[in-house]
């Protein structure tokens, strides 16, 4: 076993044991924090498929995060107000069922990723960063000024959505849902990286010409990766909205895109567990530093700076050596 | 809408564009020469505005305020370059994003720690306040005309700097071939510090000039940062000419879109919802412009190949 | 000496045990904006609130304060923490409507009291009202309605109105139009966070308006006022107090002089509570109190007044005690309507200069005993 595998196992176990401890110690808020870590890590796992594996630096993943959130918000809003989503040409009702919401979130964000990706992938490098940012900003301003679903005020859901056989209002049960989905996404990402598709994608990231000579178009590879990436981040958005029982345009903001990206850089780019490590550290810092001083952002900034300058390759890169396992 | 009003709005769009150019020039310079994504550019803008406000309040002189903004931002830029940025040139864009994001946090809260949480007072000098009447009877604020003049002067100055001076030769050489310039015996560290300080100084000056007719407060740099990125990406990164044309394009699109779209929707909608829908679309317009430009020309209007 | 002191303490303790029913400790969770661009408002609310707590000297009130960074999801997370871990009885502090919408419905559904020191979205005043939700400031539309009423009495017949394109902005224009009886020379929605208003000012100049009404909170208002003053357009300006508040007036400077704005509070309202508040706030923090500080101060005093009458664990009794609102509000007369929103006078103020300081003075009452327009929709 490599050091990275051991580290990953410890991290996975830690993220499970911490809320279980909190459950025993009757600290429900700690469970909520762990749930937040799991969900934001999931968003990062999504972005990492585009960013780590495909080399596609997207500063617009808030678009998919927000679409997932609004999929939850809109469906639940119609369900709780007993008004159908649409009646013509056929009747669509709202729903409070998590699995249905997840499917809609996945589909909607995948579709958005297909459109945004198809257009954005004509560019590369910094231009790609900026065109994805542009699409995110379009959706942000649209969500703010579109009055039907609350505009900037967002949508509140009074009761968390339901999952068959579970009580989702119980923090530990909702955490387990998020944790299982995160684990599934991590396994999927690991398999994807080792699959012929993942290998080709990785090769296209390093030398695009090489894959072209064997008859693969990098554009299609990258578009596929971008769609998968967007869909997973969208699913995370739906869960995040359910965690807060609330959705608002701030999920679409460029700061959200930046934060998801920072989780990955902090944890280690292209590392399977990079987003998990990054999200855990970021949330922990926010929680601990927030209580220290009114000006705690200064400390957060200094710590982040220290990580970039002295811990190259993020936390996992520093702790587990420089080799990326699947390279 | 009358013809005269339309002319005035075009003038407003141009003026907004030049204001954007002021903030974007330093960003595109730093990006073109060092290949660095500097998210903290907006913070340097803010530092300039705060330095100007503090100095103007202490001395009562707007000109001294401008000088202070230039000096403070350039000094902050040089310091940050030597302490942090210098280590990032060989890193990928991601590390640069994280590091300069961290700098935003430090600068923003540091400024709040120094100056408090309330906006500062900075006003235009008496000599430049109030409107003047332009040919055709348009009343236009003198200060905004001054901003247009200063912006164009800076654009000219940058063209001359890059095409005519020794520093310009070095900058151009640095853009195209880093090893080459080191082989020529030029101290590349010093060159980069100078270019970064120059970019920072321009941002600070813009902060002071723009701050005089806006709100000098913590966080004023972030919206500016995004707009500056939009501008330099549309123009093509690294190109001063591109930044100028991109700025004017964005300025005109934003201003005229905000004015004309609601009017257009009123032709076939009731006024209240036309205003709402038109404004919603107008707020998305510059991002739509940017996406369209990049789809048609993936490296911006005047960019080299990526 | 030691002995007498400990005896005294024991006596106090005994007295407190005797009055146990009224002395159950109350834990208040304050979620407000203390970092970033909007921090000034949160700091004022906090300082006003804590001043009242300090003056009361009541050892039975404990306040936990956290910074929401003006982010809805952080506010929700803090509310979860305060409810789940800190076990607070009352939540308060939120400045922004969108954050209030994120926190309030779920907090009240979980059986906590929420007292709003600033935001008053219409959704929480009408259909979404809740017995445990009290608004100690105003319903969002109130100050705009007062501006509309003032415009009528000032004989303004053709207003040009503008606000940012988001729910509070749409409510603002709706609120103004609800009371205003004249014509509209134009109606514009600007971009949220916009900093340059040259295009809007040109439209105002080209219209045949006789006045301008605007709602542009925070930095947006500062930018607009500076640019408006410099444009040479000299139509009278009317607005809600938010853009003419003590915290930002110094940044606007002379550009705001003479502007009429509407507020439920000002530092020259003539009552003993207000005089004492203004003096002690200045002594404590070295600056003049703002609208927001007054709202924080009133919120704390409302809680303290209810604590004197009922035990917070007895929700029904405590709710009644809150509803009675028997405290000396710095605004003078203050009572709650059926939807737990204030019924109060709203004044017209004018921006004036006193020495080096820009501030407001009261001109008169714009709306007397004003309630909000949504109370009828509230079924409680």
From TrEMBL, chain A:
It is found in: Cell membrane. CDD domains: TM_PBP1_LivM_like. It comes from the Bacteria. Pfam families: BPD_transp_2 (PF02653). It is a multi-pass membrane protein. Keywords: Cell membrane, Membrane, Transmembrane, Transmembrane helix. The chain crosses the membrane at residues 7-24, 30-50, 62-80, 100-119, 126-149, 172-193, 223-240, 260-285, 297-320. InterPro entries: ABC_transp_permease, LivM-like. This is Branched-chain amino acid ABC transporter permease. The lineage of its organism: Bacteria, Pseudomonadati, Pseudomonadota, Alphaproteobacteria, Rhodobacterales.
From TrEMBL, chain B:
InterPro entries: ABC_transp_permease, BCAA_transport_permease. Keywords: Amino-acid transport, Cell membrane, Membrane, Transmembrane, Transmembrane helix, Transport. The keyword Magnesium does not apply. Pfam families: BPD_transp_2 (PF02653). Signal peptide: none annotated. The chain crosses the membrane at residues 16-37, 44-64, 70-89, 101-122, 142-162, 191-213, 225-252, 273-296. It is a multi-pass membrane protein. Its main location: membrane. It is found in: Cell membrane. Belongs to the binding-protein-dependent transport system permease family. LivHM subfamily. PANTHER family: ABC TRANSPORTER ATP-BINDING PROTEIN, BRANCHED-CHAIN AMINO ACID TRANSPORT SYSTEM PERMEASE PROTEIN LIVH. This is Branched-chain amino acid ABC transporter permease. It comes from Ruegeria sediminis.
